[in-house]
Amino acid sequence: MAELLRIATRKSKLALWQAEHVAGQLRHAHPDLHVVLVPMTTQGDQIQDRSLAAIGGKGLFIKELEVAMQERRADIAVHSMKDVPANLPDGMELGAILPRADTHDALIANHYSSVDELPANARVGTSSLRRQAQLLARRADLRIEPLRGNVDTRLRRLDEGDLHAIVLASAGLIRLGWESRITERIPANICLPAVGQGAIGIECREGDASTLARLRVLEHPPTRTALTAERAFSQRLGGSCQSPIAALAQIDNGVLKLEGLVAEPDGSHLWRDAIQGDIGRAEQMGAELAERILNAGARALLERLSA
Q1: In whole angstroms, what is the distance from residue 285 CA to residue 135 CA?
Q2: What distance in Å separates the CA atoms of residue 167 and residue 44, rounded to the nearest whole number?
Q3: Mean pLDDT rounded to a whole number for the chain
Q4: Strands 33-40 and 3-10
Q5: Residue 135 reports pLDDT greater than 50
Q6: Given pLDDT bands bounded at 50, 70 and 90, which one contains residue 59?
């Protein structure tokens, strides 16, 4: 009799795509495994009329999935890593991190080719404080409009003429077959991505040996290393949705380079720095870069935003 593995997932198209992607890889690697999806609606999905910062942060997208694992109604949960807080609940661990996709933020506009070519006072849709801060740092004239909902809903608002442009993650658009809608992959020097952006992670119960053994085939060590650095950066900063924080780690010839940023929500000030070193020091480098940015002036801002 085949062993059963249950995947807790949100019901959005992107979440289901990611869960099916993981399920397909597990079925291929383990023909004896019977993999089923357990779709769930999370609090983050239910509340659509307020920004994530206002309702408690990205962790609202994964709480119910973690409870399902704790109550043994599911064995693993598949997440967009940019939604996973730096600190996991007791008894949970990241069993595997898959190869990372495109990390860029994507500008989608029907009549303009780039952020710099948007008209004066253009209305740009995003509910991400990180994106808002960096876009306003580049173009202080832009009018940032709140934008929640699934990808289809957000594209509809643009197509109905309510907005001049919207900003989404390139990886999600590509996974859903919407790559042709990407107008500009916004360069990282204009918009540094969210911690974990473009990566899929699999969460499971800590010490669940049989599940961890099954997941091992999906692990991508370079992406794990990059995310270790980014998440250590965020953790040292006490990063949350209320704080415009960005980071991107990349490996080149065995050298890890980490860029990090903290910004005023209105884009009036950005603290940005970079560090590089041996891949074995990913966690220490993340903490060191955060400390440098805190000491450069970001500490007072983060204390104010978290008050």
Answers
A1: 27
A2: 19
A3: 92
A4: parallel
A5: yes
A6: low
Whether residue 180 is found in the same domain as residue 265:
no
Burial (CB count <10 Å: 0-12, 13-18, 19+), residue 232: buried
- Going by pLDDT thresholds of 50, 70 and 90, the confidence category of residue 236 is very high
For residue 194, being part of any structural domain is answered with no
Confirm whether 307 is domain-assigned: no
Q: How many CA atoms within 13 Å lie on the side-chain side of 2?
A: 11
146 belongs to a structural domain: yes
pLDDT of residue 306: 81
pLDDT of residue 55: 44
Supply the CATH number for residue 289's domain.
3.30.160.40
Torsion of CA 158, 163, 167, 172, to 10 degrees: -10
What is the distance between the alpha carbons of residues 53 and 75, in angstroms, rounded to a whole number?
Answer: 29
pLDDT at 62: 87
- The residue annotated as part of the active site, out of 83, 102, 105, 208, is 83
Is 91 in the same domain as 123? no
The verdict on whether 83 is a catalytic residue reads yes
- Same domain? For 269 and 237 the reply is yes
Q: Please, is 33 exposed, middle or buried when counting C-beta atoms within 10 Å of its C-beta (0-12, 13-18, 19+)?
A: middle
Residue 151, CA distances (Å) to 84, 168, 176 in order: 19, 8, 9
Q: Residues near 217 by Cβ (< 8 Å), separated by ≥ 6? A: 25, 29, 30
Q: Read off the CATH number of the domain in which 65 is found.
A: 3.40.190.10
State how many domains the chain has: 3
Answer whether residue 163 is part of any domain: yes
**Residue span of the structural domain in which 25 resides:** 3-98+199-219
